[in-house]
Queue: 2 jobs
Job 1
Amino acid sequence: MSRGVPHFSVSIVARGSGRSAVLSAAYRHCAKMEFEREARVIDYTRKQGLLHEEFAIPEDAPEWLRAMMADRSVSGASEAFWNKVEAFEKRSDAQLAKDVTIALPIELSAEQNIALVRDFVSRHITAEGMVADWVYHDAPGNPHVHLMMTLRPLTEDGFGSKKVAVMEPDGNPMRNDAGKIVYELWAGGADDFNAFRDGWFACQNRHLALAGLDIRIDGRSFEKQGIELAPTIHLGVGTKAIERKADARNPGEREQEISLERLELQEERRSENARRIKNNPEIVLDLITREKSVFDERDVAKSCIATSTMRSCSRA
């Protein structure tokens, strides 16, 4: 049976938004890294939750990258690589990496989830010539992966262009009506998101089946699945911390404002789902039976927590 859409998001690590590839890598790897561009050390060794980490490269990776990784730890390879990317990108608004956050199925063990991510990385990232720097964070009830990918092709001495010519079937570059060559982003753009995400869902379904689980992921939205529920929002660790503290003493900080806005929207959607479930309890059964052919009260409770509130389900 099928399940609704779990969290899968893609963003860009860009200087224009105040982000750094090295800082992001240090945070994800819970490591201490030297940020060469700013001549400072970033230390996240006190951060907890890291269960597994890998730095995966294409089979035909150039020698300089293999030499860079030799005798280095995973976090050490990550530090060296992203410092090289930072040094290569000169613009103040440079885009440095593609950043992917993926929720992992709680039904799989840690070992099974690691095998799942390796399969996805091999099929959809390194096979395309990209580096995949990924970590597995085992947050209670929220196992997830942070994955950083390259935006430029690897060359024998560094990195190539972010834009490449679109090729015709005959091997010649495609040209527009004005006779100019048509280019596309080497690492894929917004139009490629659905195919990339669907590749993950396909891998996840394959590994759920290999584990003997009667669960399948449906990449379509609730609306397209015909389920009358509003989609809830993935709230990151920082946002959840704000929710726990219920402290809005610094409303002038943009990050906190955004987090609080997301919390408010989340609560609005939960309230709306609670109202819909109260008026039509069969929605919950519809949602669960898309996940499993056999279920019990705990499955009902989990669906209620994910989509609305326990109060509305108890009334249902």
Job 2
Amino acid sequence: MRLSDFDFELPPELIAQHPGARRADSRLLRVARDSLVDLLFRDLPTLLVPGDLLVFNDTRVIRARLHGAKDTGGRVEALVERVLDEHEALAQLRASKPPHPGARLQWRTSGATVLAREGGFWRLRFDDDVHACLEREGALPLPPYIGRDPETADEERYQTVYAREPGSVAAPTAGLHFDEATLQQLRERRVHCAFVTLHVGAGTFQPVRVEDLSQHRMHAERFRVPQETARAIGEARARGSRIVAVGTTSLRTLESAVDAQGQVAAGSAETSLFVTPGYRFRVVDALLTNFHLPRSTLLMLASAFAGVERVRAAYAHAIAERYRFFSYGDAMLLDRCDD
């Protein structure tokens, strides 16, 4: 398939600029094999059965956006892509002129030295601990389609309630709909929960620039599958229960960690898995996800999972019914299509 196969017209007013009043009040479109059903997210527990396993991404969004000045006086904006160690990080830099190795960048109360250019990123050495600097001086990196600066409410609402591993520059947005009451209802229905960690990079917002999708290369992202999660997946498979990925990041983690025998292996690695129609899914049976950008790799993944025509119909229905789109928007629950 080609890039243009994943284009659609989205009315700008359907791009959610703020979160809803309450997480679980979001709408939920149930996309089954032969039907589309309009629900609320709080109805999700009724769509699951005892023994089903939900797999969440527990990454936490860091305050990755920094504003400062170069030693030559020009302004610079840094978006930290990945923290490498206590003092070094990879970042995207936006400035009138690109800095040179050895240049100094000054934040409000501390700074960093430019070490080298690495692909589309710059390697920076911070004067103090990177995470401490970001927490003190950084801003939450809201997606580019949210046309406003971060507000106090975003500090809570652009994190999942179960976020615990800092490292992402974007939220795993399918998880934003869960509140403690919904998680408790799942436990009461004996639906199992497990966690993986995938730190979402800034590349998630980079557009696909080639019409031939076979020429596109995904950015690499770090992930970790705990031993208890690998074990929970094996047990769910043994009892014939469904594996439900909460978000595309959870799905890509699981599909990247499966071995030749079809078993999900515990451990840490990087993934640049690009899922397009024709991909054979080996782990995940159902996918909970938000509505994604036109021509995006996330839309391609959803189409590969549930079927291109089924997803096109779901998006057309969502636009007609005025669903909210993208990070702060509504959600849909997709069954895997093995046609």
